[in-house]
Amino acid sequence: MAAARMDDVSILYLDDEEHNLVAFRAAFRRHFKVYTTASAREAVKLLRQHQIPIVITDQRMPEMMGVQFLEAIIPEFPDTIRMILTGFSDVEAIIKAINHGRVYRYITKPWDENELLMVLHGAADLVRLQMKNRQLLGELQQKVQDQARIMRLFEKYVPAHVLEDVLGDADADGPDLFRGESRIVSVLMSDIRDFTRRASRMDARDVVALLNEYFSLMTDCVRRHHGTVNKFLGDGLLAVFGAPVSHLENQENAVLCALDMVEALDGFNTRYGPGFDPLKIGIGINTGEVVVGHVGSADRVEYTVIGDAVNVASRIEGLTHGHDNAIFVSQSTYDVIEELVEAKNCGRFQIRGKDEPISIYQIVGRRL
């Protein structure tokens, strides 16, 4: 019987009769890489030394029955394809071989060379299928790991809730991606005082390193108070409380976050030690209705907040200039948190873009 060469697949044949081993080698060594032995212990050594995916054993042997041998090697070699080649035709032994030894085929002696070769070819095909499946599984696991790494990377640019929402939307690549949603949120704007002047006296790499450390600290504060950093604006930061996920205490969270940011900044400046010109910031907070959603083009999309409430928060932050580490909030924010904090009424200010002046309060600290 002509057959394609399959010597990339190895077979181990265990039999206590030497003439059977000789006959097996002579019949199948042209088709497979064949290992033979009369000892079960030697068979285990061969399995450990070589990659042998197919194991064939005689049933009746002096050391142990063939089924016992196949049972014994399962823990160490669980993926091997196991066959029994024997003249012992007891039905109970066949059942035990299948149930306990996980036997692929039970073949009786004397074997027919052509029939046995067909069985071995089938086993070799199964080996290749298993190898291919393992390869595909490995590739799948690698892709899952790559996907997880990409997700972690994207979460640095896009809030995790937004990313999950987009990935969970079957139409996320269609026009619905750009739909907007009206929400009432608290918007926090912060800015480092005189950072342009400071940066002009520093090496560019030192500027980036300082900003990265500062923003890491501020971002931790925002996350701790259930907010989302929406943008870094040079040395400024825009955070939103109430989108993409809202809490009942959006105003409280925004103000407590601001107090936390000022306190964290004190520790930041202290760590830099003597000679370091301390960073000082200003924070403005406003509460109002905005439109949140994805803005951009087919090639680049950004999750953002748009609306008058954002502009007012920016104008309020501008009022803090001349007040180091000051937190100014609008009336709409103060009305909700006045019992939570100590505050000073700064009066009414005309905000660019607003017809009427608005009341501004400076947050001094938490109420005890």
Describe the structure concisely for a colleague.
The protein is of the alpha/beta class and 368 residues long.
Summarize this structure as a short list of keywords or feature phrases.
eight-stranded mixed sheet, 368 residues, five-stranded parallel sheet, alpha/beta, 2 domains, Rossmann fold
Describe this structure as you would to a colleague.
The protein has 11 helices and 13 strands. The N terminus is likely disordered. 43% of the residues lie in helices and 26% in strands. The strands form 2 sheets. Strands 6, 7, 8, 9, 10, 11, 12 and 13 form an 8-stranded mixed sheet that branches. A 5-stranded parallel sheet has the order 2-1-3-4-5, with helices on both faces. It has 2 domains: 126 residues, Rossmann fold, CATH 3.40.50; 196 residues, Alpha-Beta Plaits, CATH 3.30.70.1230. The termini are far apart. It is of the alpha/beta class. 31% of the residues are buried.
